[in-house]
Amino acid sequence: MQGLKIFFIFGDNMKRIFETSNRIQTEKLGEALGKRLKAGDFLALTGDLGAGKTAFTRGVARGLGILEDITSPTFTIINQYEAPVPLAHMDAYRLNSPEELENAGFYDYLEDFVVVLEWADRVEELLPADVLWIYFTVLDENRRSIEFLSQTPHHDTILEELDF
Question: What is the pTM of this model?
């Protein structure tokens, strides 16, 4: 990738920041990550509307071998996609309370799926301890800063290897 890549380690946390120049690069970054994920991995996405969370998730799905069209689960709350490692794509944007996500079956997906949760900061109290946080920032019409924050050795390894 031609964009900016920054790598930090501070305390027990590892941070990587990528800058993408367009939606295609955002999807490719997601795809590179998706190829490294396994069942039980949890991605907590945050960022403004239009920041690239769903585009990134399309890439994650492609990296998992999912060829279906990936759409935002804003109204359905959870979209499930079958693959050797299945994907549960969740969205907390329209929820009035964390209980709504629980009632939609949130806990049923934590072990056997890769989970991608958009607007994860709205239901942070529900999240498992081993979460890879991904922060999306709009830099301009096309460019995005995508910051990964790991708090576990498993995700540290993934971030060390992540490139596209």
Answer: 0.91
